Amino acid sequence: FFALLINSLAFTYYLFLYPTPQELQGQELAVNQKFAQFVKESTPRQGKTFYLANNLGLAGLVAFHGKVKVYMAPGRLKQFDLWGRPDIKPGDNVIYFVLNQKEVYNGLLPIFRRVQIEPHRRLFAKDADIPSKTEIYHCFGYKGGQIP
Known about the structure:
By secondary structure, the protein is of the alpha/beta class. The chain has seven helices and five strands. The chain has helices at about 1-15, 30-35, 35-40, 55-65, 80, 105-110, 130-135; strands at about 50-55, 70, 95-100, 110-115, 135-140. The radius of gyration is 17 Å and the shape is elongated. About 25% of the residues are buried.
């Protein structure tokens, strides 16, 4: 009984009381439904585009809702490399989903011709504060080097 009570309270808190970022309140369900369209529209028409993530949970969200193959940055998580490494060549583009690491931006600047930060929150999950701690970097024209 006690275990059922504790689990019920935790589940209720998670579903109804867990804080949602201000800019996503009222649209929690629609954010992920629109994500595949966002990925399609933000994929550059010229050159090949790869989708990368720096976190396993984030990679799963992007792959599921975006309907694209997502890679981890090479060498970041060895078990993810078993499913394939991206063969990024000079001139290719990357859309990089980064959770909780602002310093990645400075590491991307020297290895891409241009890097833009997506101004809007595009993913929603209550786990790990993904909406408020995720940055999406649009990286154009890979020049070479290790992706952080």
